[in-house]
Design a protein that fits this description.
heterodimer, A: 115 residues, 4-stranded antiparallel β-sheet
Chain lengths: 115, 113
């Protein structure tokens, strides 16, 4: 039971390059989330998916796209990276019942630098 | 909308000192309340939670009590250790609302030996 996994762990991009951050969970959760974490800003929600086939914008969606490929996987794409997107990106999934109701489980993060 | 306000820090304590990190919230429904901890270089992990008024969550010597009358969920520990050095996030999930988590901005704790 791996929980939430993210790849890659580290990435350096040049301005204008594109990349996709991968996230997968093995807990059979419906809801999944992408956050970015910047110093002094806490966690900010980029996009979320309440179920397979649905996605919604969060607080800071500009410059990003997402795909909920299936129930396990939720990817985040930067089409044209900008230095302002230098950040640590976290994926999370959310429990829906029992002891884990509304608890979010986080991946280890992707540390992205855009030059 | 829903919001969480926590003391900004950073907080620096000596080992065995008493810790309090304040957290207050605003919610339209009946929130569940959470404290998450983030150790250096890692993702967030749940520390404790409470789902209704007057519930006390506890884990690893940390405690927090859901106070509806003061809309607060303050985190406390009687004797901190160097290994408690981390960033602590207060969060809520509003069961009458969207059920997404709303996070505070985090409080960095450093414990010196």
């Amino acid at each position: 039971n791996a929980g939430v996994t993210q790849t890659p762990k580290f990435q350096v991009l040049k301005t204008g390059q594109s990349m996709t951050l991968q996230c997968a969970q093995d807990m059979n959760h419906n809801s999944m989330y992408w956050y970015r974490q910047d110093p002094g800003m806490g966690l900010r929600l980029i996009y979320y998916s309440a179920s397979e086939g649905t996605t919604d914008k969060g607080e800071v969606p500009n410059g990003y796209n997402v795909s909920r490929l299936n129930k396990r996987e939720f990817s985040l794409r930067l089409e044209s990276a900008a230095p302002s997107q230098t950040s640590v990106y976290f994926c999370a999934s959310q429990g829906e019942q029992g002891a884990n109701y509304n608890e979010q489980f986080f991946g280890p993060g992707t540390r992205l630098t855009v030059l | 909308g829903d919001s969480v306000t926590q003391m900004e820090g950073p907080v620096t304590l000596s080992e065995e000192a008493f810790l309090t990190i304040n957290c207050t919230y605003t919610a339209t429904g009946y929130p569940s309340l959470f404290w998450y901890v983030q150790y250096p270089g890692e993702g967030l992990q749940l520390l404790l939670k409470a789902t209704k008024a007057d519930d006390k969550g506890s884990n690893k010597g940390f405690e927090a009590t859901y106070r509806k009358e003061t809309t607060s969920f303050h985190l406390e520990k009687g004797s901190v250790q160097v290994s408690d050095s981390a960033v602590y996030f207060c969060a809520l999930s509003d069961r009458g609302g969207s059920e997404k988590l709303v996070f505070g901005k985090g409080t960095k704790l450093t414990v010196n030996p």
